[in-house]
Structures are given as C-alpha cells and as structure tokens.
Amino acid sequence: MAGHHGQNDMNTISFGPQIRQSPFFDATLKWGAKGYSVYNHMFIPRDFGDPVQNFWNLIERAILCDVSVERQVEITGPDAARFVQCLTPRNLSTCQVGQCKYVLLTSQEGGIINDPVLLRLGENHFWLSLADSDALLWAKGVATFAGLDVDIKEPDVSPLQLQGPQSLSIMQRLFGDDIEKLKYYWLIETTLDSIPLVISRTGWSSERGYELYLRDGSRGSELWERIMAVGEPLGLSPGHTSTIRRIEGGMLSYHADMDIHTNPYELGLDRLVDLTMETDFIGKAALNDIQANGVARILVGLEIDGPALEAPNTKHWLLSLGAETVGHITSAVYSPRLKRNIALGFVGVAHNRLGLRLKTTSEIGERNVTIVEKPFYDPKKRLATS
What we know:
This protein folds into three domains: 25-70 and 156-246, Gyrase A, domain 2; 72-141, Aminomethyltransferase beta-barrel domains (Alpha-Beta Plaits, 2-Layer Sandwich); 251-382, 2-Layer Sandwich (Gyrase A, domain 2), CATH 3.30.1360. Helix content is 20%, strand content 31%. The chain has nine helices and 21 strands. The strands form five sheets. The protein has a six-stranded mixed β-sheet, sandwiched between helices. Strand 18 and strand 19 form a beta hairpin. The protein is globular. The two termini are 38 Å apart.
C-alpha cells in the first residue's frame, strides 16, 4: 500500500492498524485504487491512475470518491446549538434544521483549528464534517469547561462524494426525480435499499455534486457497488478528490493553505466572521484585534511560468522579490483545461498587487510567478450551485 506515486515516491511506506480503513476500503481496492494517503488517521484513496484523467472524468461526467476521512463530530443535548455557536465565528442564528454551512473553528488566538461543513440534523443535533485535524478532541475539551449540557462523540458515519455534471442524473436513478429539489447546502435523511443515509448537496470539487453519509459501516461495499452499477452507464468512474479542480476553484486545503497559525482575515474569509453577534465565541477578542489592526499577509492567486508542473507541490515554495522573501506558495498544480500552472499562496499585504512579478526557487528550478485573480475558473460557483 504505497503512498501516492509522484515526485516524492519513496517506494513503500508501511502502516499499522492505527491507520483506519474506511467502510469503502475493499471496494476502492477492487475498483482500481493504486495508492493511498493518510488523512485524519485514515487511508484515503489518492491514485486511480492518471490524475489528469481523473480531472476530466470529474468535469465531463462524474466520479465517486471515498471521503470517509471527513470524520463527523456529533454534538447533541439540550445546549447543542449554543455550544456549536461557541466554536465558530460564523453567525448560525439563521441556520435551519436540514441546512449545511461552511464554518471555521477558531482558537483563542483566532487561528483556524478546522474548516468543517456543519450539518444541522435537528434542533439540537449537529455534525461537523471535518477537514484534517483532531477537532473531536478540541470539542470534547471545550465542552469539559463550557458548563453546557452536550454530548459529543464520533458516530458511525462515513461519507462518499458523488461529483460532476452527471451526478444529478445518477442520483435521480437511485432516489427518484424529487432529489432534484434538494438545494445547495441542504440535506435530507433517507435510505437506499434499507441502507441508512444522510444526503447533502455539498462536496469538495467546485462541481455540482452530492455527499452520501453512510450511517451503517457494515454496508460500505454494498452502497459503493449500488452507486457504481447505476452510474457506470452514465459515465461514472471511481476517483479521488481532484487537486487540479479544487485549486481552479480556489478551494482551500487544511494544512496546505491554512492551519492553526492562519486567521480568517488572511484567507479573505471575513464573511465567515460576525463580530457583532452577542455570543462570545472562542477567538472573538483576538479576531476583533486582528480586524482592527489589519493583517500582515493575504492569500492570493498565482500563475507560475515555464513548463507544466509534473505533479502538485509537496512542500511550500518561497516567493521572492529581488533579494527579499515576500511570501510562499501553498498549493500548485498544472491545469490541463487552462493550460497553465496555477497556485495559491501568501504574500505580504504590501506586495498584494495584481500583475506583480515574483520568483520562486525549488526542486522545479527557478520560475517567474505572477499574482493573478482567483478563483481561476467559474468564480461565481455557478457549476456547483446550479
């Protein structure tokens, strides 16, 4: 079970039972997964062959991805809604039962602990569908001292992503025509052949898509096979989350583009912070100070000159202007659709000017880099929301 093959291939890296397998692990092996990475202490398929072909499969037809690594933090109890609001600077007062919200969990210093999708299943029943950090432990630690009546655990829930322009047609064949009424960032609870599911109009692809949250881990292969049987005639392929498409769409990856030392204002995510609400959420005082004083750096779009990158970057690449280091590249990839190397990265606010030419030096050699608009494709997210 080697890691993802690419410029950092180290032949074979061995893992023990501490790296968990998802309910879909056997199915992904059967359907051609050749390499796995580790995310939230679990295997995630990262290689079904050519990543460029995976990209075309996603944007032209549809792909099915095992994203069980998006572990759920389940928060229930009489004070669940109050507790969830304590964790995030996003104002949840208008979040209805059946709705999903992209939220940030912030630390006392205003840094980002995780950027999950929040699902509200009931008045006092929430899931946080996690990015790559131990937010279950964070939530349990906060609850110990919060003085609120909540129960926090990781439920038996494992999501699949069905993403791409054919996803609606596949879902209609599985669940009937009414599934078209499911709005962007809303959810329903349902079953498929008695398999218990939550379905949401969400996904990590910038394309139209759905996430199917399996609520019985013993039925992973059954669910996977059922979806593929219906989807293959419509062009569905097994796949993995596309680095190319997510960078095109300006979607952020935890640990790559942000971490606990990054605040929402540096990412341009001011819309996810409401400093005017009464709730004293964690990090409120720090975020007040950051907003008042301004930030030193900002996340920007970048274009890298020269030949096509053979693989995404595996570490941050420094950005320089003359002899001065002015930032770093966080995520970089070649887009076969745009026919250029695109990237996200941080620059000092004094250098945040569209068209500014910088340099980066790394294992790909010295390259010129230009600050450009982001996202790089479909900036209004019409594909995902249509």
